[in-house]
Design goal:
Blueprint lengths: L5 H7 L4 H24 L1 E14 L4 E7 L11 E6 L4 H4 L2 E10 L5 E7 L17 E14 H11 L2
Antiparallel strand pairs: 1-2, 1-6, 2-5, 3-4, 3-6, 4-5
């Protein structure tokens, strides 16, 4: 292997002048763009609860959840149901939408009336059959908020 001359060693061993002059500016510009994007892009909060889903008809179901209802749950929000015994990565989840919420008389449970556009068929086309009720992990997609809104709310609610 040939030994490089002094000019080549000098070029290879030094930082390019444009990077020394403008490198920090480029890094700050990229960081500023990332901060601006994080304020503009909104994504939903996801509430995860355990419950029991019961079919009311072909495309309607009642979901009973233990605990106090969350105030962010509203009509029209998207839900996904991960049915116990049907692995989500293999079989998929059942998708639906909240039609109505109500507190049950016992006080420690609430129910959601769900519309299931595909019935008890998962995203991957697997039909969930055999019973009228199933144990489920439900994910409720609530309001969409930006990173900055979430950060401000966490400071506001946690002094």
């Amino acid at each position: 292997m040939k030994d490089h001359g002094p000019e080549v060693r000098e070029i290879m061993g030094s930082t390019p002048p444009w990077f020394t002059r403008n490198g920090i500016g480029v890094v700050l510009l990229l960081f500023s763009l990332l901060l601006a994007f994080s304020g503009w892009y909104r994504y939903p909060d996801v509430l995860t609860r355990k419950g029991i889903v019961r079919m009311n008809g072909n495309k309607e179901a009642t979901l009973e959840i233990l605990g106090e209802p969350d105030t962010s749950i509203r009509m029209g929000q998207k839900v996904t149901l991960g049915i116990t015994g049907y692995p989500e990565l293999e079989d998929g989840v059942v998708e639906g939408m909240i039609m109505k919420t109500e507190q049950l008389p016992t006080g420690d449970r609430y129910s959601l009336l769900l519309q299931l556009p595909n019935g008890m068929v998962t995203r991957f086309g697997k039909k969930i059959a055999g019973r009228d009720q199933w144990q489920t992990t439900v994910r409720i997609f609530t309001e969409k908020r930006s990173f900055w809104n979430r950060l401000a709310k966490s400071f506001y609610h946690h002094p």
